[in-house]
Amino acid sequence: MAFESMNTLPKCDANYTALSPTTFLKRAAAFYAERTSVIYECTRFTWGQTYDRCCRLASSLVSLNVVKHDVVSVLAPNVPAMYEMHFGVPMAGAVLNTINTRLNAKTIASILRHSGAKVFFVDYQYVPLARDVLRILTTDTADKSMPLVIVIDDIDSPTGIRLGELEYEQLIKKGNPGFVSVPVDDEWDPVALNYTSGTTSEPKGVVYSHRGAYLSTMSLVLGWEMGSEPVYLWTLPMFHCNGWTFTWGVAARGGTNVCLRNTTAYDIYRNIHRHKVTHMCCAPIIFNFLLEAKSHERCEISTPVQILTGGAPPPAPLLKKIEPLGFKVTHAYGLTEATGPALVCEWQAKWNMLPGDDQAKLKARQGISILTLADVDVKNKDTMESVPHDGKTMGEIVLRGSSVMKGYFKDPKATEKAFQNGWFWTGDVGVVHPDGYMEIKDRLKDVIISGGENISSVEVENILHGHPKVLEAAVVAMPHPRWGESPCAFVALRSNAEGAATESEIIAYCRKNLPHFMVPKKVEFLPQLPRNPMGKVLKNVLRDQAKTFVLSESQQTAVDLYRNDQQILALSRL
Amino acid sequence: MAFESMNTLPKCDANYTALSPTTFLKRAAAFYAERTSVIYECTRFTWGQTYDRCCRLASSLVSLNVVKHDVVSVLAPNVPAMYEMHFGVPMAGAVLNTINTRLNAKTIASILRHSGAKVFFVDYQYVPLARDVLRILTTDTADKSMPLVIVIDDIDSPTGIRLGELEYEQLIKKGNPGFVSVPVDDEWDPVALNYTSGTTSEPKGVVYSHRGAYLSTMSLVLGWEMGSEPVYLWTLPMFHCNGWTFTWGVAARGGTNVCLRNTTAYDIYRNIHRHKVTHMCCAPIIFNFLLEAKSHERCEISTPVQILTGGAPPPAPLLKKIEPLGFKVTHAYGLTEATGPALVCEWQAKWNMLPGDDQAKLKARQGISILTLADVDVKNKDTMESVPHDGKTMGEIVLRGSSVMKGYFKDPKATEKAFQNGWFWTGDVGVVHPDGYMEIKDRLKDVIISGGENISSVEVENILHGHPKVLEAAVVAMPHPRWGESPCAFVALRSNAEGAATESEIIAYCRKNLPHFMVPKKVEFLPQLPRNPMGKVLKNVLRDQAKTFVLSESQQTAVDLYRNDQQILALSRL
To answer: Which of residues A131 and B551 earns the better pLDDT score?
Structure first.
């Protein structure tokens, strides 16, 4: 009876509205109309103006025959147009596809082809790259439909550079500010399409729903405790998971977006100082830029700047150096498939009492799930069992919840593989500490399995990075006749130290600092490590090279002796 | 093509989970297990323990034959059991019905009957009241099914008082800590049933969905900017819209709930001091308690306590007095049907520059919509047009969004009436200021319509409250032969001033401070105003009385002359 009546209460327009991040803009325009929304060099907009411009953009897209769920691609740095597209494109009912500007023409062409992009916006700076992309698309005889190209000239200092006939500001001028957004019929509808970087495979198209984007935005604003009226500096490219959802989040908070074409240390310091920046996101590599800036490139930071960092754990020495400059770092872990950060290393008040080294160690952990993830766990994929919370036992990190992607576009096989047994399998290997905080140890495919022992390549690399002569290092598996795999290190030395370090010196250093079975059995020196356009080390290339290495007899024996000792020890404990 | 493929991506357990506020507890237990969750006098629990207790409670309810969507009612102050029920009851699949402890036995009996409550939890303090309730239910021959009664003894200092055989702590002890929550099949499923106070009509049962409760919780934590690890003092009864959703919100933030049986000034100050309280919600009436506390009842407040207030706009003089004591007030407006606060008067940094009086005036406004409301507006119900943003034109406040109730339980007529034309009609009359902030002027039914002019009874009351001899005042419509209605004031004088004020003195005072057409044409003195158990003035009683009043000829003429003047003036302007 109770059941009947309470459940048959009707959903209606008044009590059930589709969750969509575009609603944050409408609200910002209603309540923060006069507040500054976007700053880019000498250009400034208010939330009232940004809403007006996004309505115009959406109406122009519709008049260009963009229809519901068409893909609109964009190749641009963090300029105002890029920000506006995060609202204007979905307001036209279309799906936003932001493309990594560091990719090569061939990859971009394949993304445009795979996504079936109807419109292709190109910032003037990337016109030469886009020309190459279009050439590839045109010569591809299998594909007759070309996207409509629209160039985005610099709004602050127009260059006149064009590609095709249309230019972004024309579209805005001609647009209708009274345009009514194409309604979101279902919050499960797509809002964005983001291609993964693909270190080992073809880029995959990750589809976000309005619901997922909305909930992720809410959780990240909450997880980072971003208060009202933030001044957000766009150091993180918006093409990374829609700026880890902060494109939408800054609107939700009625904040100010400080747009940035180039992320040089000078530009970052200058903008922080000039606009009293309160928040920014970036990879830890940006810490190096900030620390290595020359004195004339720096400005004083009067109030602390909150940094959310991810992509790689921030090394403790960097954390200790960056915070005294006026930055307060929060560490997050995520991936494109999780709509950006899925774990945030939420700080606990009691940790403030600990010594700096311990604090840095705690901060380097990836942390706890954001609020809208229903569940996070670390599992043994074979047994489906959760690993014990001992900070040691490794398993694959799995996620579940409404901020996980809809799936991979036109790739049911990959989608099925990603979603198994009710979880999204991240492909990252981690541990759970006794306090429930998680720490990533490696990418699944980078784990070295030696005689049944899992070796985290990241842990070995961390030790190698501590060697004074090592600039960068990557550790991969090499074949071993008895143990299956053994660690092999690729090392680039600091320029002032070249030739000065030997293989045996490096190995001796590792022996001092690592359990013996984790010590690389071979060290190969390279002038620099091979990287993809995202800056990620191409471990598959190194692995291919390591496959050709053969251990000398003495190297084999050393390992075998060690293993035998270990096994005897293990047996004696039973 | 794009449409087809992106939309057919499957919802699965990994990427689509029902939004439910109970997930906040599970997360708190995973990541804040050792942190204090609940404090009540000498009793303390951690989040790990609270989760354990809620699992036990849920399992015990299931073993008492509570099945999905059964109603579980509770009559209790803000004690730990009341908090735990906000998770334990929905974890058993049931719907939580918290009952206002200030209601009389007859009303409580009618709520239990209307809701079909299967279980009735009663705090020991309310056993005498509950006995009366049960007597009414038993003598009601039409109803044979009685709820199972379970008493909640004081956990900190047990009294031994019983009603029926079962006691809450027994249930916890016997329960299964490994109980797996009854899954939420659909986030639209009911989670709570809250009866309105009903000043003029029968209480109506407002049904919340898991989705609505979840989203409201997120928005309110965001809207109030409640950071990590809050220490929340339970001054606001949890039976008010589930403590304005902070029952769930404190779990989401991994905070500490400081429970409070009695909200005396002494108890409030003592707990703030002892536990370093950071947040509390209350009606402005509590400000009076805090201000009037004697010195031995007070404690020093070392760090500012955030107060979220609502129910009535906080009068400016109160705000000016309360903030220097160490409280920082945020003003919100809501109603049971909106899952608590729907508008929050979000503070703008630029207002900090303004003089104190202007700040208090801005803070007394009800503000802007919380994030999960898709839309808020002030509309003329006849034309469905939005009022201009002039701070003057009145209309009815309407809401739309996923934090609005599912509807009224077993009352399709009232539900249909509340949801018209795609909006929830609040029955509150307000204006929109040029900056988009809203201000409530009156309850719709309390507006006095005089010759086509809307008069806000609240505005007239505000002026009357400024008269030094007036303790309390209520203004309602009285019939007028020509203008339809005129304002009539009911006034209770301060005890030290009784008999000293005359009708003409009060009217003269109003003439000095109000436009003439808003001046009460009659003032009736009462020893005190009639109020309902919630403390709300029963204006319907006063209206009935005012209907019997007849204006003298001179009173009529004065009004008519004024009106004629006004009309001539208006015509001359055309």
So the answer is: A131
